[in-house]
Amino acid sequence: MKIKRIVIFLLAFAITIIAYSPIVSHASLMKLSTDRLRYGVVGVNNTLSDNKRIRIEVHATASDKTYYVPYYRGDEFIDIPLMFGNGEYTISLYSGLYDNYYEFIEAKTVYLNMGDYDNIYLSSSVFVPWSDAKTATKKADELAAGKNGDYRKFYAIYDFVTQNVKYDFSKIDMKRSRSSPDETLACGSGTCMDFSVLLAAMLRCSGYKCKLVYGYKNGDRVYHSWNEVYLGDKWVTVDPTADAQYYECGIPFSYFKAAGDYVPDVAF
After folding, report:
1. Is the domain covering 130-267 a CATH 3.40.50.2000 domain?
2. What's the chain's average pLDDT?
3. What is the pTM of this model?
């Protein structure tokens, strides 16, 4: 009877150890670079098979807000902005299964603590990739040269974008989440996303805090993008897509729009 009790105890103990032992995970398939964390950006890389659809989830603990970034074939490290303020973020890797279903692979945590969080709107990221936009940044430097005062530099860059890029209606139905400033300059046309990304890239590399904003213009059901720029110690709303069409048609316009006419959804 005593031997039987010992056997039962050992068996129960073994089951407990198996149930509560930590699981040995596979080698990490996602790498994070925190080299630019002080600018509000985290670098993400993964080693999943190229034939899989991949997306990165960014979740802010404090605000309980989440957004997703597609990781395309050919990407190496992509710089993702931590756009929900200071605090803890969980960066998760997902692999596509079918349709819009994804499998969780792994997650890592980073902590953001910026003295002036608005400096994130100076950063180069996957959404406003100005550090790799050699043509756009060179042009911005040329336009700003010799201009005194923030407004004169801003006007020079803004006028260049609205007067040299045309709206391309053929690109409206293209499913894209990113835009290349240099490609927009090379073809001289684009959608609202291309206008706004190009302007943000040229202004940020020139030292202006500039938001890339997505949402709706009042009375319009079409998803739109525009910019907010920090000028004269305040944020002002500008819409380069609309102003480019006004310029093309010879219609007078005001650079700065009424913020109440725009309903922002998200700003990168």
Report:
1. no
2. 87
3. 0.86
